[in-house]
Design goal:
Layout lengths: L2 H37 L10 H8 L33 E13 L5 E6 L6 E2 L4 E5 L2 H14 L3 H25 L5 H40 L2 E3 L4 E6 L6 E2 L5 E16 L11 E6 L7 E8 L9 E8 L11 E6 L4
Antiparallel strand pairs: 1-8, 1-12, 2-4, 2-7, 3-6, 4-5, 6-8, 8-11, 9-10, 9-12, 10-11
Helix pairs in contact: 3-5, 4-5
């Protein structure tokens, strides 16, 4: 056998011994590390924040998820000392509109005019929009003409007076035996019928007056008014559109403002309706203001160990907007 035929065999042997040696090394290293790996504890996933779930459930009724004024934007409750005075503790809160009203129409109709724009301030009972109402206005004019018609009433009054005079003369003649009983009864019947016609004329006039009120009320339904004082936040429809059950406008009442705060359960019973509190909004409107506790939740949320409270913050100058974060410090610690 030549050298060229022995070289491949030697190379294959070297590769085999190299692979065998590497396998032995890996096996020894694995046996050495196995006890340490067995003693390692599995990594635990982070637990969800109970305050986050609490805030999601504490969203006021009627406010959809994703609303800009949701309470779940409140930060976590500030750590506190249960034995400390409330005046020395501050809690995160959220300033919201007291009410957000969606304005619609009680009837289906064509929008004739919208009299406000986004950002306008409106007073309670102010006209916001009008629906097309030419037919209803004509009905009001007809009903008013009927209600103001007095000819039938005046005619009935004259007939009744004449009937009373005839009845009195017939009674005098009957007492002097100058008039028969049949003639007297006929005159009295005429006087009674005249009185009944007068009463019917009065009833017709009252019905006409009620029909006028009905026509005016139906016409009034074509006028959209604001139920509260506040700012128009959205205008969703324009003249020429047909309104049925859609929302035309949204109005937010910001006087007073509503302040929502989530408190730890250790403070349950120490915060009561009527207590005063100091509200400090976020910068740059971080001037301290005084609010009053309006509502304290009667139940504690078990998973988060918290309860909610609502305060009313006067805002007569409308200088504080809704949607701000704030800090609340209760002043009455009874």
């Amino acid at each position: 056998m030549t050298n060229s035929s022995r070289e491949p065999v030697e190379n294959r042997r070297k590769r085999w011994w190299t692979a065998f040696g590497a396998t032995i090394v890996f096996a020894v290293v694995g046996l050495a590390l196995a006890p340490g790996l067995a003693r390692r504890e599995p990594t635990s996933l982070p637990k969800p924040d109970p305050l986050e779930s609490r805030s999601e459930r504490a969203s006021p009724a009627g406010e959809p998820r994703g609303d800009r004024y949701r309470i779940d934007s409140i930060a976590a409750v500030t750590p506190h000392d249960p034995s400390a005075s409330l005046e020395n503790q501050a809690f995160d809160c959220m300033v919201m509109p007291n009410e957000v009203i969606e304005i619609g129409s009680a009837i289906t109709g064509l929008i004739e005019a919208v009299l406000v724009e986004r950002g306008d301030y409106v007073e309670a009972d102010q006209v916001l929009a009008r629906l097309e109402s030419s037919v209803e206005r004509a009905a009001v004019r007809v009903a008013r003409a009927r209600a103001e018609r007095k000819g039938e009433l005046e005619s009935s009054e004259v007939s009744r007076e004449l009937g009373e005079k005839r009845r009195q003369r017939a009674l005098n003649l009957f007492e002097r035996d100058s008039l028969s009983l049949d003639a007297r009864e006929e005159v009295e019947t005429g006087a009674t019928l005249a009185a009944l016609e007068l009463e019917q004329a009065r009833e017709n006039l009252r019905i006409a007056s009620l029909q006028l009120d009905q026509a005016v009320a139906f016409l009034e339904r074509h006028t959209i008014r604001s139920p509260i004082s506040g700012f128009v936040t959205e205008r969703l429809m324009a003249p020429g559109e047909v309104v049925d059950e859609e929302t035309m406008l949204r109005i937010a009442q910001i006087d007073p403002l509503r302040v929502e705060v989530i408190l730890p359960s250790q403070l349950f019973g120490r915060v009561r309706a009527g207590d005063r509190a100091e509200i400090v909004p976020e910068a740059p409107l971080d001037q301290a203001r005084t609010a009053e506790v309006a509502i304290v939740d009667p139940l504690i949320d078990g998973p988060s160990g918290t309860f909610g409270a609502r305060l009313l913050l006067p805002n007569p100058d409308h200088d504080l907007p809704a949607g701000l974060r704030c800090q609340v410090r209760f002043l009455d610690d009874s």
